[in-house]
Amino acid sequence: MWTAKDITKYFVTTCETCNQFNPRAAMKAGLGGFPVPDVPWKEIVVDFTDMGADKRVERKQYLLVCVDPFSKWVEAVPTKTKTGKEVKWLTREVIPQFGVPEIIRSDNGTHFSNDDLRLVERMFGIKHKFGAVYHAASQGLVEHANRTIKEGLTKVCADTNLTWVEALPIVSFNLRSIPNATLNVSPHEILTGRKMPCPLTVMPRDSTLLLLQHANMNDVSEQVIEILHRDQPEEPTPVAVDSWVYQKVHKLHWSEPRWKDPYKVAETTTHCVKLWLTENMLSNWIHKTHYSPAEDPAGWTVNEVRADLRTSVPELIYNPAEPEPQLEEDLP
């Protein structure tokens, strides 16, 4: 049976104009994290960062950064453009030096979805996983590396008057040799089992060096694995497939809706969904914070609710042709 409260709530939640234009709370995603690799260079995370048109050196404006999530080792190369042609550096330099990764993570830029890279990935059996659109935190590890590199370049350039291209090797040396605050060992030590030789580094020089390095490598690996697997966040409940959600409008004019019409959920993870944009077209991965729950558009229409009210509770329908009922004190 319909009550006045039920009718009001239904009309408010199904009003198309209200749902598109009113501010709505997005879904809460909670703290997320990718599965932790158990060996170095099993996965890599790549991204471009813009150094600024006013900081262009030798016609190079961008920095292509690659990070190993296990050791936190950073590789970076200056580039002139942000295209798939520059991404070939991964196949020319990174893979021959460190081996073939199982997974490459990146954003949804066209430079990372080009045919040349797809061909290499298919030949080597590499899986390419793209992050959620409009959500830079999906590539949080490499975004942090970008920020750290720029901070280091700022200080080196200020002290030495070098260009950022010339200062990049110095910053890379610094990132690889300094112990990580979380792991308490340097990326170089994780990869090689020994500290990077520096001016004040004391290195063992007796015949047992290889045995010491092997033992140290085992200790370092166990330490890194223990820390990376510690305090893993609880996985939130994913959104149900075939449910409906509103998608957030990112480039918004004041006179336009804040939310796009409800879409049906096609695929889902703990933090992202893919939506059916049309009967045959899927969206990219969309983060939870960029959509909001919606009612099934195939539910009751306003006319159906009115018809149901007329048949189930006709006494609630006001008919202006009928005289209003009189109270007892109003009767003669």
Q: How would you describe this protein?
A:
The protein has 332 residues and is of the alpha+beta class. The protein folds into two domains: 4-30 and 236-316, SH3 type barrels (Roll), CATH 2.30.30; 43-191 and 218-228, Ribonuclease H-like superfamily/Ribonuclease H (Nucleotidyltransferase, domain 5, 2-Layer Sandwich). 34% of the residues lie in helices and 16% in strands. The chain is built from ten helices and ten strands. The chain has helices at 4-14, 16-21, 84-87, 89-98, 115-124, 140-160, 164-177, 187-192, 209-228, 302-312, and strands spanning 43-50, 62-67, 74-79, 103-106, 127-130, 244-248, 259-268, 272-276, 286-287, 291-294. A hairpin with a 3-residue loop joins strand 7 and strand 8 (272-276). Helix 6 packs across helix 7. The two termini are 36 Å apart. The model is unreliable at 327-332 (pLDDT under 50).
Explain briefly what this protein structure is.
The chain is an alpha+beta fold and 332 residues long. The chain has helices at 4-14, 16-21, 84-87, 89-98, 115-124, 140-160, 164-177, 187-192, 209-228, 302-312; strands at 43-50, 62-67, 74-79, 103-106, 127-130, 244-248, 259-268, 272-276, 286-287, 291-294. It folds into 2 domains: 4-30 and 236-316, SH3 type barrels (Roll), CATH 2.30.30; 43-191 and 218-228, Ribonuclease H-like superfamily/Ribonuclease H (Nucleotidyltransferase, domain 5, 2-Layer Sandwich), CATH 3.30.420.10.
